[in-house]
Amino acid sequence: MTTLDWLIVLIVNGSIIAYGLYLARGTHSSSEWFLASRTLPWWAVGLSMFATNVDNADLVGVTGKTFTEGIHVITVYALGSAVGGILAAYFLVPEISRLGLYTNAEYLEVRYGPSARILSALIQIQYRTSMLGMMIWSTFLVLTKLVDIPEPLAWGLILLLVALAGLYTAWGGLKSVVWTDSAQGIVMMAAAIVVFVSIWNAVGGWSALEEKLLAADQRDGSHLADKLHIGGFRGDHDAVSPYMVALGWTIVGAGYWTVNHTQTMRLMGSRSLADMKYAAVFGVILSLPVMMISACLGVFAHGIDGLPPHETADDLYPILANQFLGPGLKGLVVAGMVAAVVSTFDSMGSALSAIFTRDVYARLIAPNKSDEHYVFVGRIATVAVLLIGFAYLPFIWKQDHMLKAFTTLIPVFVTPLFTIYLAGVFTRLHRGSGTFGLLCGSSYGLVALYDRQFATPQILPHWFTELWVAYSWSIGFTLVPMVLASLVLTRWKGEGAEPRTETGWLQRSREELTAFPDAESKGSLWTWLSAILVTVASCWIVFVWLW
To answer: For residue 309, how many other CB atoms are within 10 A of its CB?
Structure first.
């Protein structure tokens, strides 16, 4: 890193962080802090969703994963994001917003009861703080492998980034987060293009890469060319249909966009229903090309002669950037990586602090304090949530690559939670069935996780616990018990008790929230056309172009 590179990093990211602190001025009420008073335009929300969806852990982790397994991971950013974004913005979040709610966990109490709400809050905190651990580790890799600074200094800089992101997020809430994310998203896209063009030129393009991999397969009896096709991956034991892998990734992506409050919170801050829908489509469209670039880097590495040695696949992204980028460009890429980590730090900090403050603290611990008190608690929780991510580092270190650490935990709790959200919106299953289904699905997830990760040898068959089939089994083990419970409860208890009427600050804050504009105006047809087009395009990318 030259002086020019460091100047680019400092000027770009320093300006964005200063902008976030500037925006934080004047944020006082809970509606301003949690939902930006529902004033955000679609393009800002979409850019923020993109910046949150594509973080530095994705850029580093996807490169490593595609190096070892191939480009099948693109499915989660194409089909998974399209399905999840549409489910969230067109069905789930409009229902939540019409009810005047602040978090997606609040909806579960209205639909199923308080226990479902509390479990959802705890699951979301676990789910997203594990991602924070991946971000911290990927930032460490970039600082030590690309920037080449000593490890103690790298950890010090990471703590500084956490502190700065926590500062403007805690002070300004969602408004500061969305507008800084918008700027950070632009920097991330520029950095991704720079890396891609450099590696593309070094390899000689897609055709040259394909020729090199086919030649290596003929010479060594390997299957490197299969990594260029989504359908070439058949699971960890080479025994799963590639269509089941694609289905698994689709479930992961859909669950991310619906369960993950870092995304639904942004949609809730939209100024209208049409803005909400356009924002989701825009966020999906922006995410796909950037993640395709990262996926390509992993397989491109197989076509580079004299690839530098690396201890793990996750080292690959910073090593490639370090080898092929010159002064100035390296600084832009590091600035993009820093922007990626800060944008997701602030997003998770604001969303998870909102979950904790409303769904745990105000619901169970202190239900009737002042509005200022809960805003203060949310600010303190922001910093605490960011620090929890460090606890996951030992688990991440033990995995082949960091994305495996993340995906292996999803069918345990997240997929069952995703299932009861959809069942709540699309079915009339009994109010008492939600918690029962969530517990049944999570029980299967824990059994499968133990068998998959810790049992030696495995006790249960691969077709029952292997990661890519576990996503589908998890949905089944959640939904079927919900149906059975509904049949029993409807017969003996009727349709279920009425939703609990909240009191204290939770109710007051809902009454103070600006009424959500229910009508889409004249843009309704275009919102649905955009959803259809992005879904068709995603299906073509996955099942035709790259299959």
So the answer is: 6
How much is the pTM?
0.85
Mean pLDDT, the chain, as a whole number?
A: 81
CB 406 within 8 A of CB 127: no
CA 325 to CA 194: how far, in whole Å?
A: 8
Please state the separation of Cα 530 from the chain's center in Å.
Answer: 22
Nearest to residue 355, comparing CAs of 118, 167, 161? 118
Residue 456 amino acid letter: T
Q: Which residue has the tokens 């576990």?
A: 470
Look at residue 522 in the predicted model and tell me its pLDDT: 46
Q: Which residue in 234, 127, 251, 236 sits closest to 458, CA to CA?
A: 236
CA 318 – CA 5 distance, rounded (Å): 15
**Distance from chain centroid for Cα 332:** 24
Q: Provide long-range contacts, Cβ within 8 A and 24+ apart, for 537-546.
A: 538/78, 538/79, 538/81, 538/82, 538/284, 538/288, 539/79, 541/74, 541/78, 541/288, 542/74, 542/75, 542/78, 542/79, 542/230, 542/246, 543/230, 543/246, 546/71, 546/74, 546/228, 546/229, 546/230
CA distances from 302 to 145, 153, 335 (A): 19, 32, 27
Query: What is the SS3 assignment for 199?
Result: helix
pLDDT of residue 433: 92
Would you list the domain boundaries of the chain?
A: 3-21+40-545
- Return the closest-CA partner of residue 38 out of 102, 121, 110: 102
> Which tokens is 162 given?
């956490």
Q: What is the CA radius of gyration of the chain?
A: 23
| Residue 93, phi-psi category: left (phi > 0), alpha (psi -120 to 50), beta (remainder) | alpha
Q: What span, in angstroms and rounded, lies between the C-alpha atoms of 468 and 471? A: 6
Say how many residues make up the chain.
547
| DSSP SS3 for 175 | helix
- List beta partners, residue 40: 270
Count of C-beta atoms within a 10 Å radius of residue 149 = 13
Cβ contact 469:240 at 8 Å: yes
φ/ψ (deg, to 5) at 6: -65, -35
**CA angle, 72 as apex, 132 and 231 as ends, to 5°?**
160
Q: What tokens does 21 get?
A: 């602190």
Q: How far apart are CA 370 and CA 509, in angstroms?
A: 10
Give the C-alpha distances (Å, rounded to integers) separating 25 from 20, 40, 164: 9, 17, 16
Top-level CATH class of 3-21+40-545? mainly alpha
Supply the DSSP symbol for 392.
G
What's the mean pLDDT in 434-460? 88
Token digits of residue 274: 């049409």
pLDDT tens digits along 33-57: 677 777 788 888 888 888 777 766 6
Pick from 10, 76, 38, 44: which is nearest to 468 by CA?
76
Q: CA dist 225 to 63, 209, 309, 317, Å?
A: 16, 9, 21, 20
